[in-house]
Structure formats: structure tokens, C-alpha cells
Amino acid sequence: MSLQQSLVGRGKFITLEGLEGVGKTTNRELIESQLSAAGIDFIGTREPGGTPIGEQLRELVLSTRGSMQAETELMIMVASRLELVSQLIEPALAKGQWVLCDRYLDASVAYQGAGRALGVERVLQLHALMGVTLTPDLTLLLDMSVKDGLARMVARGKPDRIENEAVEFFERARQAYLQRAVAEPKRIEVIDASLSKDDVGASVARAVRRLIQSV
Ligand code: Z5A
């Protein structure tokens, strides 16, 4: 370990999760401002994507051209994550930088494990098998009804392949997210995303402040 690393310690890893339209991008920007104001060195990234290979995989997996087996979809998500963790996230954390990621492993549990009904255990086993075992320090789960979240997305238009799924798919994903929050209450903070942008932002900022103060 270099002198610089031993002085700053390992960085913290924060993820944003939730269904479409719940405000992940909106709140990612708020957290970035908060971290900057606190003088914390950080990087922001997203999944699928975040590396040159990951961004190509993102285009492939979200494209509306042709159909794809659920297992193929899962393996592309894991491949993109593997690249992101090894090329960007782990090196940044090791240098003492904080990492803010728009979606991570919980999204595969929710969307592929529950939404596509591949099974939560199977999704976790595949990650373990591939050595993707990094767990976030804090996960902000923005939660609201599927109907209201989708309504926000309809206003945006141009749905991708996964956004074209039926409401039942998203209901299963939402329940899986909430079950994970019950199982891991210390890591996952559920935030009511149906409130105003200011109120959601205030809850997000409180949770991030607690993490900053814990260091
Ligand atoms: N996916 C997967 O299946 N498995 C995986 O392992 C991973 C991902 C990692 C990535 O999509 C897709 O990949 C995603 C899951 C799947 N697909 N689906 N479906 P993405 O990255 O393109 O998009 P997203 O993650 O679904 O996010 P989004 O669609 O951009 O939504 P968002 O970031 O959560 O919301 P936003 O852009 O901040 O806000 C949406 C609108 O609502 C916008 O107009 C805001 O101004 C408005 N908004 C935000 N907050 C509020 C409040 N509080 N009140 C009112 N209006 C608000």
C-alpha cells in the first residue's frame, strides 16, 4: 500500500437503485454536488456501461433489435459489471476515491432474477462464480409504484428493450428490490421516490451525510 493510500484509506461505494423513472439520474447529480461540497474525491459511473467495453455491451443489451434469451441478458449484465469493477471501481476505491454508481448488482437480482424469473440465487451464484463479490457501502433504493414510475418514463418516450416489458415484470422487480432491503437494512436505505424532488433529495442527502460522517 502506498503512503497516499494509507493516509486516505479505502473509498466508499454508493449505488442508486430502483425502477425506471424513480429519479436515479436526478439524485445522482445531487449526490455529486454533495460529495464535491464535502471535498470528497469521487467518480460517477453507471450500469450497464461505464467502460468502453461496458458501453458497447449496454448498446447491445438495451437495443430493441431482435429478441434475446433471459440468460444471455444476465450474462451481458455480469460481463459489463466485471469490466466496471475491475477497471474502474476497485482501482478507484483502492486509491481512496469514492464511487457513485447508477445501478449495480441489485439491479440484476431485481430485473433478471425476479423480473425475468431466472431466480435470485442463480443470479448471485453467477456473480460469485465470476468473482464479482464487491458489496456497496450504501445503496439508495428509490421506490415508488410501478404505474407512477412508468408514467414518468412515458413522458420521456423512446423505450429501450427492457422498458418495453409488461407491468408484471416491473412489479416482480420492485418486490425483489424491497425484499433485498428487508434482508440488508444496514446497506440498503429505501427512499419514497413518489415525493417531491426536494423531499426525495433531502432524504438522499441525509443518508449520504451519515456515510460521510461515519468516515
Ligand atoms: N438493467 C438490468 O436489467 N439489469 C442490470 O443488472 C442493470 C440494468 C444494471 C438501464 O436503463 C436498464 O438496464 C434498465 C434496467 C436494466 N432498464 N429498464 N427498464 P437506463 O440506465 O437507461 O435507465 P434507468 O436506470 O431505468 O433510469 P432512467 O430511466 O433514466 O430513470 P431515472 O434515472 O430513475 O429517473 P430520472 O431520469 O432522474 O427521472 C425521470 C423523470 O422524472 C425526469 O423527467 C425527472 O425530472 C422526473 N423526476 C425525477 N424525480 C422526480 C420527483 N421526485 N417528482 C417528479 N418528477 C421527478
Describe this structure in words.
It is a single chain. This protein is 58% helix and 13% strand. A 5-stranded parallel beta sheet has the order 2-3-1-4-5, sandwiched between helices. With 215 residues, the protein is of the alpha/beta class. It is globular, with a radius of gyration of 17 Å. The two termini are 19 Å apart. The chain has helices at 3-8, 24-37, 52-62, 70-94, 105-115, 120-130, 146-156, 167-183, 197-214, and strands spanning 13-18, 42-46, 98-102, 138-143, 188-192. It binds ligand Z5A. Ligand Z5A binds next to helix 2, helix 5, helix 7 and helix 9.
The separation of the N and C termini measures 19 Å
Give the biggest sheet.
5 strands, parallel
Strand content: 5-15%
Kindly state the number of beta strands: 5
Which overall shape is indicated by the principal axes computed on the Cα atoms? globular
Strand order of the largest sheet: 2-3-1-4-5
Ligand identities: ligand Z5A
| Main structural class | alpha/beta
The helix fraction, in percent, is: 55-70%
- Radius of gyration, whole Å: 17 Å
What's the helix-strand series?
HEHEHHEHHEHHEH
Low-confidence stretches: none
Number of helices: 9
What is the average per-residue confidence, as pLDDT, rounded to a whole number?
94
